[in-house]
Every structure is written in structure tokens, then in C-alpha cells.
TrEMBL record:
It is an enzyme of class 4 (lyase). Keywords: Lyase. CDD domains: crotonase-like. GO terms for molecular function: 3-hydroxypropionyl-CoA dehydratase activity. Belongs to the enoyl-CoA hydratase/isomerase family. It comes from the Archaea. Coiled coil: none annotated. It comes from Candidatus Lokiarchaeum ossiferum. This is 3-hydroxypropionyl-coenzyme A dehydratase. InterPro entries: ClpP/crotonase-like_dom_sf (IPR029045), Enoyl-CoA_hyd/isom_CS (IPR018376), Enoyl-CoA_hydra/iso (IPR001753), Enoyl-CoA_hydra_C (IPR014748). Pfam families: ECH_1. The keyword Lyase applies. Its EC number is 4.2.1.116. Transmembrane segments: none annotated.
Length: 259
């Protein structure tokens, strides 16, 4: 698929996906959704990408779902749009590799929800966050009512969603919404450095850790621990477990092969 609004490049084992619709602050219209979906499928099929960075061009990371697209919708259309957006962001959460949001600017509504579907987030000092939907007469619709309370806790999430207020990167870090704030000129290098630190680990171990965390968070602790037991066991059928432990015992650096 030729993409107008999504750029993708590889830097060794790190993929960099850049949302490029700056005239609308990268607002998520149907075309951008379809381009993102196709790009994510390509990324999922590429066994040489060990970590992914998602960022945006210009002042916006993503200023939300496209308000002009949503304005004329009725119940069925609104619901279908929500289902489409949630499936798209679930695809990000379900990628086997770690995904880093490098938040360059406005991450509002669907843009904040995009960031929430990533594993970790680094933000520029210029970034702004919020779920302003109630001011538009709607609820967050791309899983913000579900992922935000799971990440920052229900009390903080409710205050943010009910007020719709926009807040800065320092507050986002303080409430645990993001991992780190950096000056704008250091954003991409910090994200790449973090991505490389993930990419040099045993890929199966990172993938199984991600699955154990994400699947375990959806269930009770007894079942969650069983999920971990299974992924922990699976590591012992990989070459990289033999290599990682062998390298430690032989006092040399491990060379992982993703097998
Ligand atoms: N949808 C469609 N277009 C958008 C947009 C959006 N979410 N956000 C910005 N734009 C467009 C503006 O309409 C404007 O277009 P024109 O130049 O053609 O007029 C362009 O992007 C630049 O925006 P502004 O002139 O408004 O820029 P600003 O710097 O003055 O303000 C802003 C920036 C505070 C982010 C402001 O654009 C804004 O409030 N945007 C809307 C944010 C929002 O409410 N997002 C939630 C959307 S609903 C949602 O996401 C639902 C969901 O959960 C799925």
C-alpha cells in the first residue's frame, strides 16, 4: 500500500513509524487509520524488527480522531468507528515487539489513546496530553476509558476524562502516564537509545515478557502467575536461552539469533 500519511523506516533492528498529516496535527481520519493498519501488518511480518518507535511530524503527535469525519455520524456509525479504532490500537498492543511512543507534540483524544497502546512513552517538553472528548459531546472512543485507568489508576483517569483538561509533559510523567520527559531536540535519540537497549536483548524473552505482562494484567493473580509460568518455560526451548546463560557462565558477551 502506498502511504500518504504514514512514513516507515528501519534503523538496524529498530523500526520508526512517523505519522505525517501535519496540516491536521496528525488527526486520525479513515485513510490514516487504514495506512497505519497496513504498516503495522508489515511490521508484524518483519522478523528483523526487534523494537518500534511511533512518533509524529510537526506540532502534533496526534491531535485525536478526526472531528470532521465524526461530526455527521449516528449511533451505528459512531460505534463502528470506535470498533475500528480500538482494533487498530489493539494491533499495536499485540505486536510481539516493544513499542515506544516518542511524543513530539499534542497527544489528545485518540492521540493519547495511541500513546496508551504503546508499551512505554517518552515525551518532549513541548508535548501536551489529554482526553478532551467530553467537551465535544462524546466519551473517549479508542479504548481511553479502559487503558487510561489501567495505567494511571481510576481516580486520576476519571478526573482527566471528566474535565477533558489538557496538561503538560511534567504532569504526565508525575502521574505515571509516560516514562520520561526530554528536551525536544533529544526526543528521537532518547527513543532510539531505549529501542536499541530493548533490541539487543533476547527477542523471544522480550516478547514473552510483554505477553506475560499484558495477558496477566487482564486476569486475577493466580491465573496471571500461571501465564508467566508458561512463558518462562517456553524460554527454555529457545537457542537464545542456551546462548544467554552459556555466555554468562563462559564470561563472554551473548550473541542472540532470535531462535
Ligand atoms: N480533527 C480534525 N482536525 C483537527 C483536529 C482533529 N482532532 N485537531 C486539529 N485539527 C486541525 C484543525 O481543524 C486545523 O485545521 P485548519 O488549519 O484546516 O483549520 C489544524 O488541524 C490546526 O489546528 P489548530 O488551528 O486548531 O491548531 P492550534 O495550535 O490552534 O490548536 C489544538 C491545537 C489545541 C490541538 C487544537 O487543534 C485542538 O483542540 N484540536 C482538537 C483536539 C481534540 O479535541 N481531540 C480529540 C478528538 S475526539 C477523539 O479523539 C475521539 C476518540 O477518542 C476516538
Amino acid at each position: 500500500m502506498d502511504c500518504e500519511f504514514v512514513q516507515f523506516e528501519k534503523d538496524e533492528n529498530v523500526g520508526i513509524l512517523t505519522i505525517n498529516r501535519p496540516k491536521a496535527l496528525n488527526a486520525l481520519n479513515i485513510q490514516l487509520m487504514d495506512e497505519l493498519d497496513a504498516t503495522l501488518d508489515n511490521i508484524a511480518a518483519d522478523a528483523e524488527i526487534y523494537a518500534l518507535i511511533i512518533t509524529g511530524v510537526g506540532k502534533g503527535f496526534m491531535a485525536g480522531a478526526d472531528i470532521a469525519t465524526m461530526k455527521p455520524m449516528d449511533y451505528e456509525q459512531g460505534k463502528a468507528y470506535g470498533i475500528k479504532g480500538c482494533a487498530l490500537f489493539q494491533k499495536i498492543e499485540d505486536l510481539d515487539i516493544p513499542v515506544i511512543a516518542a511524543v513530539n507534540g499534542f497527544a489528545l483524544g485518540g492521540g493519547n489513546e495511541l500513546m496508551l497502546s504503546c508499551d512505554v512513552a517518552i515525551a518532549s517538553e513541548k508535548a501536551k496530553f489529554g482526553q478532551p472528548e467530553v467537551g465535544l459531546g462524546i466519551t473517549p472512543g479508542f479504548a481511553g476509558t479502559q487503558r487510561l485507568p489501567r495505567i494511571v489508576g481510576p481516580r486520576v483517569a476519571k478526573e482527566l476524562i471528566y474535565s477533558g483538561r489538557v496538561f503538560g509533559a511534567a504532569e504526565a510523567e508525575k502521574i505515571g502516564l509516560i516514562n520520561k520527559v526530554v528536551p525536544p531536540e533529544e526526543l528521537m535519540e532518547t527513543a532510539k537509545s531505549m529501542a536499541r537497549s530493548f533490541a539487543k536483548m533476547a527477542p523471544f524473552a522480550v516478547k514473552y515478557a510483554k505477553k506475560a505482562i499484558n495477558e496477566g494484567l487482564q486476569t486475577d493473580i493466580d491465573h496471571a502467575v500461571k501465564i508467566e509460568n508458561d512463558y518462562f518455560g517456553k524460554c527454555f526451548s529457545t537457542n537464545d536461552q542456551e546462548e544467554g546463560m552459556g555466555a554468562f557462565l563462559e564470561k563472554r558477551k551473548a550473541t542472540f539469533t532470535n531462535k
